Amino acid sequence: MTALQVRNLSKTYGEGHAALHNLSFEVKEGELLSIVGPSGCGKTTLLKCVAGLIPATRGEVSVHGREVTGVPDGLAVVFQDYGRSLFPWMKVGANIAFPLETSRLPKAEIRERVEHSLAAVGLEGKAERYPWQLSGGMQQRVAIARALAYRPQVLLMDEPFASVDAQTRSGLEDLTRRVHLEFGMTIMFVTHDIDESVYLADRLIVLRRSPGSVLAELVIELPRVRDQIATKSLPAFVRQRSEVAQHIKDAS
Ligand SMILES: Nc1ncnc2c1ncn2[C@@H]1O[C@H](COP(=O)(O)OP(=O)(O)OP(=O)(O)O)[C@@H](O)[C@H]1O
């Protein structure tokens, strides 16, 4: 089944700055789609249109068959800037519970979800800490836990690991793959990092810029369960990584 459909999407800012032109693609239920492209090709613009945060100029986006006109139910976003996405005056547990407070969920269910999602990201026992008492990588895991606690059907991730060190980044990539498989979640992952885009994806779309449009689409030929060292040594990874790099070079 199709979880997310983008049809002939164009976005022009102001009087005539075309950021996206005639983009069409779909993401199947339970699939992890990477969107990769050079800086300024419109990745963030695309994600904002899909999340219903800004209106499209032409074309349409639908999530589970419903046209997106505002932020759709069952959709969560993890942004790059974890420092600004968590409330510093709230403890970690309260940050995770916050989007659920307006739901009609019983308090006990909210507490259970907070604990479960903290455990899923390896932060058991950290609910009573403040975000500023945690490292950058841990804060980003809290942001992922907050999205998980909401139990979204579709998760959008916008360069979520761009501001953490390389080792933390690898751990967060593996965490993303794990929650994708464990929760059967549909994920659209936006990045300009070629290795990351291939390592994470079931399928991948390369965007060209000025204006952003689909340049290539690849089905990633890697096992479902991945490992940073073993998977990146596979001939399929090396070949597909080079293929994406070539597309991006052509697009720049
Ligand atoms: N609010 C805005 N008003 C006008 N132009 C904008 C606005 N937001 C983005 N743009 C322009 O649209 C184009 C696409 O920007 P966008 O941020 O979507 O690209 P990106 O691929 O996410 O970039 P990066 O990888 O550098 O984050 C750029 O040329 C940018 O300057």
TrEMBL record:
It holds the Pfam family ABC_tran. Residues 4-234 form the ABC transporter domain. This is ABC transporter ATP-binding protein. The keyword Transport applies. It comes from the Bacteria. The lineage of its organism: Bacteria, Bacillati, Actinomycetota, Actinomycetes, Streptosporangiales. Keywords: ATP-binding, Nucleotide-binding, Transport. GO terms for molecular function: ATP binding. InterPro entries: AAA+_ATPase, ABC_transporter-like_ATP-bd, ABC_transporter-like_CS, ABC_transporter_ATP-bind, P-loop_NTPase. SUPFAM superfamilies: P-loop containing nucleoside triphosphate hydrolases.
